[in-house]
Amino acid sequence: MPLLVKCALIHYQFETIHPFLDGNGRVGRLLVDLFLHWKGLLSKPLLYMSLFFKHNRQEYFDRFMMVRHKGDYEQWVQFFLKAVIWSAEHAIEKIKQILLLQENLRQRVIEKKGASLRSIQLLDVLFMSPLININDIATKLEISFQVASGQVKLFLKLGILEELTGQKRSRRFAFAPFAPYLRIIEK
Fold first, then answer.
1. Contact indicator for 101, 181 with CB cutoff of 8 Å
2. What's the pTM?
3. Residue numbers of the chain with a pLDDT score lower than 70
4. According to DSSP H, which parts of the chain are helical?
5. Measured CA distances, 92 to 8, 32, 48, 165, 184 (Å)
6. Sign of the CA dihedral 13, 18, 20, 23?
7. Which of 33, 63, 130, 147 could form a disulfide bond with 45, CB atoms 3.0-4.6 angstroms apart?
8. DSSP of 2-57, one letter per residue?
9. How many angstroms separate the CA atoms of 82 and 79, rounded?
10. Is-contact 109 123, C-beta < 8 A?
């Protein structure tokens, strides 16, 4: 049986069993990603099917009922596969938007006098760790505190980092473009 069909049936069976008092829907949808990741169909669990099911909530429940009352699994599997396709396309679009944001920022960094390979590496780090301090940067980039501090100054000038603490020591910084990054993910 194809993995996606198995996954559709697993999801249906889990939701039918409804083993917990609360959170069955969330856990059931999470199991989809984890199963596909475990079976090697996804390199990372990035398929967010919950949004599709939320947009099609009534149809989602109606199709469950069609399986329960009529034994019509085929229509459920077709609906589930439609959700997989929509979710995959949605994820690809979000990834493209994030990569475009990353490339635009990379160009801003490259065009700035004083930028280096470390600057590009720092930008990559910020996409993974949007709240950071100079020690974190030094550790992640395997550079000295002074070199990391210089990179922070450059990124502050570019508006890529914002200082959060207002202190002279133990300062923390936020990835300033994190708001657009979050908006992409939240949409």
1. yes
2. 0.76
3. 178-179, 187
4. 3-17, 24-38, 50-55, 57-70, 73-111, 117-128, 134-141, 145-158, 178-186
5. 21, 18, 11, 36, 12
6. positive
7. 33
8. -HHHHHHHHHHHHHHH--SSS-HHHHHHHHHHHHHHHTTS-SS----THHHHHHTH
9. 5
10. yes
